[in-house]
Design goal:
It is a single chain. Helix 7 packs across helix 8. The protein is of the alpha/beta class and 262 residues long. It has a single domain, classed as Glycerol-3-phosphate (1)-acyltransferase. Helix 5 links the parallel strand 3 and strand 4. The longest helix is centred in the last third of the chain and has 26 residues. This is 1-acyl-sn-glycerol-3-phosphate acyltransferase.
Length: 262
């Protein structure tokens, strides 16, 4: 049954993406940029409904009161494709710095171009990277929210942290609050696997780190705050979902935490 539900969800998920992108394209490109964002946000909401109805997976968000007004850096843990889109409905006007190849994809690339995402050539240096930072600053000054994953890429739940220094540079250069976010969707929607597991999990938005710290001190603080909260939430999620098939990284980390608490 688990395999059947997983296959069905994956099929419906991608069909939902394709159908909505085609059906709503005329409306999307006729609307003003920010108003058009409602289409992507409603797509995210429809996926939450599909995840609940087909797989039996639900979630809740804690700490929405920690989100500041205006421009800030939204810095979530990244474990799954789920967290690439799932929180869009709760953000006012978010944008990403993303690899420029994504803008070349027909239709999808047009969608992200309209939302003024900031493309980057990962092999670029010097002036090209300076132009990326100038674009990013301009978007932030207009009150938008930059979504950046501090570890850079998807990491399995419980894996040792691998934070990149880029988040510290952005914190220094942009001079805006950083909002850390921890969650474990990778337990239910694992990376590089088709299995989707039922259950319930929490997204925990932590208090913002205000600008003004030295970059090295900021990064050390961010790692400490996020990893402490992530460990606590991993234990809570595993205890609330005893049926879960845990990946080795999560099982190993839970054993370490239980041994430490004993």
């Amino acid at each position: 049954m688990l395999a059947f539900r997983s296959v069905l969800f994956n099929a419906v998920f991608y069909a939902n993406l394709i159908v909505q992108m085609i059906v709503f394209t005329p409306v999307y490109f006729l609307l003003p940029r920010k108003k058009a964002y409602v289409i992507a946000k409603n797509w995210a909401r429809s996926n939450h409904w599909l995840f609940k109805v087909i797989v039996g997976t639900t979630f809740e968000i804690e700490g929405l009161e920690n989100i500041p007004n205006g421009g800030y850096i939204f810095a979530p843990k990244h474990q799954s494709f789920w967290d690439a889109y799932a929180l869009l409905p709760w953000l006012d006007d978010p944008f990403y710095i993303l690899k420029r190849e994504l803008t070349w994809i027909p239709l999808f690339g047009w969608y992200i171009k309209k939302q003024r995402m900031v493309p980057v050539d990962r092999s670029a240096r010097g002036k090209a990277m300076a132009a990326v930072m100038d674009r990013t600053k301009a978007e932030m000054e207009s009150g938008r929210q930059l979504i950046i994953y501090p570890e850079g890429t998807r990491r399995p739940p419980g894996a040792p942290p691998e934070y990149k220094y880029g988040i510290a540079r952005l914190y220094r250069d942009l001079q805006v609050p950083v909002v850390p976010v921890v969650m474990h969707p990778g337990l239910f929607w694992p990376r590089r696997k088709f299995i989707r597991q039922p259950g319930h999990f929490k997204v925990r938005i932590l208090p913002a780190v205000m600008p003004g710290m030295e970059p090295d001190a900021f990064l050390a603080h961010l790692i400490d705050v996020m990893e402490t909260a992530s460990d606590r939430l991993l234990v809570e999620t595993a205890e609330a979902n005893p049926h879960l098939l845990l990946p080795p990284t999560a099982a190993h980390r839970l054993a370490e935490l239980k041994a430490r608490a004993a």
